[in-house]
Structures are given as C-alpha cells and as structure tokens.
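Quick one:
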Amino acid sequence: MSTITDATQTINSDFRAISNAFLQQPGLPFANVLPAERIAEVFEQEDAMFAEDDIFSTPVVLWAFLAQTLRDRKMASCRQATMDIAVYKTHNGQRPPCGDTGDYCRARAKLDENVLRKLVVEIGHKLQATVDEKHLWKGRNAKLVDGFTFTMPDTEANQSEYPQNPFRSRALVFRSPGHAPSYRWRRRA
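Output:
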C-alpha cells in the first residue's frame, strides 16, 4: 500500500526531474516561456519598470530570479543567477555583466511584489484555460488549501506590516504570519 509520504516523494522527484531538465537550458530558460513584452507591459501598467536598456533590465532580472527560485543550494545563488544572465547576454550578442552580484541583487530588490502577484495570477488563468478535460478530477477543478506560518524578526517595520495577534502573549519576539495558499489539483494522464 502506498502512503502519502511515498506519493510526496514521487511528486517531488517528478517535479525535480522536470525542473532540472528545464533549467539545463543555457542562459535564462524563462525567456522562452514568459515574453519580455508581456513583462514590460504589466510592469509599465503598475509604473514599476526599471533599467529598460540596461544589463539588468526588468525582464532579464525576473527571468533570472524565477530560475533562481527553482534551483537548489549553490545553484540558487546570486552568483549563479549573474552567470545565467552573462550566458544569456553573450548568446544574444549583448554586453554581459561584470560578475559582481551586487548589481543583480539590487535590481532583484526592485521587482514589485504586486506586479509579480498579478503576473502569477494571469499565468495561472492562462494555464487553467488550456487544461485538457481528461486532467480534471471527475470533470471538475479541485482546489487544495494548505496553511503554514513563518517567523521573522520583531522589528518596527514588521510590526506595522504584520500586527501581532491580540490573543497572543506580548512577550513574543518573532512575528508569525499565517498564509493559506491554494493549489489546483490535476491528475496525471
């Protein structure tokens, strides 16, 4: 009999195999699936576009950041992201970055969270519209919800952004915001 743990390991293994194959492409693999024009359009709508004609333009930084989030350990470093940008720029006949990760990290900090959320929702809706009915659960969309919390330092900025639960002890030194992301479930063919 298989268990939830077995299923989770299989899913993680499958996901890792697919993401590794995707990330093996030279440079910035997301450049092939998320067009720079669409990134620019969404960021411009929110007045969040930056460095349009620079090495670390908004699309390039977003592509590198997305690849960085899928990688493990040292491969998820800012150095690796900067090297990916260098490969991409060189491959496209453009001037690559010098190798200093500071410029990439400062540019990555400019990625507007609200614009990223808007892009994720848009992409999710587009993917939802393309799903073959045979991948639905009993012909329907199934939504999975999972809750989690995380801790962070009890700074003034965090206190104003994430107020403390009034039913908790005031002696707590860490914030613990709760989140409940939802996922759409599809069975595999």
